[in-house]
Amino acid sequence: MFADSALMSPDFDEEAYLRYALHDPNCQAEQARLASCVKAVREEVHKILSENAEDMLQQVTAACRAQRDVAAVRQATFSLMGSTNRLRHTIQEPYRVISANITKLGNMNAAINILRSILKFIGLTTRLKSQPSQDLARASRTLREVEELLQTSNIKGIEVVDNRIDTVERAAVTIRTKAQEMLRHGDAQDASGVAISLQCLFTLGLLPRVLGSLMTEQKREVIRSLMRDLDPQTIVDEVNHGGSSATNDMNLRMREVLFSR
């Protein structure tokens, strides 16, 4: 038999009670007992509600207030998000316009610089072509400006520039060749020519290399002359065939070889 406490227990077994009730011959008494238990439960619930009514009202009020606060926060969040989107649009649009204008200005500046370089290149090549070949000093300075312009500016590949490259290269070969020839064939009586050739080579940045090459050639020439003039067999042959006069000539030539170079 199930006691009243078992019927109101949290661990109440419904299936076991149904089997018990179905086999119980006194169903009316069991129904009355169930009704009594239901009444007791209702009274207990009413008692609990009566005792905690104030706390429950406060909790309900707090829950309603919290719900209103959450709704207000949600509304403020939506408003803030809308303001942020509007502010982003307000900032981004001018930024895009400014960035586009800066890019356009940079491209225009680059184009203007290239145009200036092209105009300068045309002017220099025209001047280089019109300068007389005798004025190597000015021609070398002009050639140096052209070479520096080609190195520092990105104008190669432009048709008007490429059409004049051959002229610049021919002028460069002519100027360098003439300057080196003037230096190689110059002497003390032609000091101005030597000075002009040195100035041209210095302007073109070729002076150390050309002087080194020239000194090497002169050194080799001196060595060849010494070896030819001081060859023992040649000296012996001249002594044997020329006598004292040949000896004097040989001594004179040795002095010339040793002291004239």
Shape: rod-shaped
Helix content: over 70%
Cα separation of the termini = 146 Å
Quote the average pLDDT. 79
Biggest sheet features: none
Rg over alpha carbons: 58 Å
InterPro entries: Cog5 (IPR019465), COG5_helical (IPR048485), COG5_N (IPR049176)
Subcellular location: Golgi apparatus membrane
Domain Conserved oligomeric Golgi complex subunit 5 helical: 156-258
Protein name: Conserved oligomeric Golgi complex subunit 5
Write up what this structure looks like:
By secondary structure, this protein is an all-alpha fold. It has nine helices and no strands. It has helices at 4-7, 14-23, 27-51, 53-130, 136-152, 159-185, 191-203, 207-229, 232-259. The chain starts with a helix and ends with a helix. 9% of the residues are buried. Keywords: Golgi apparatus, Membrane. This is Conserved oligomeric Golgi complex subunit 5.
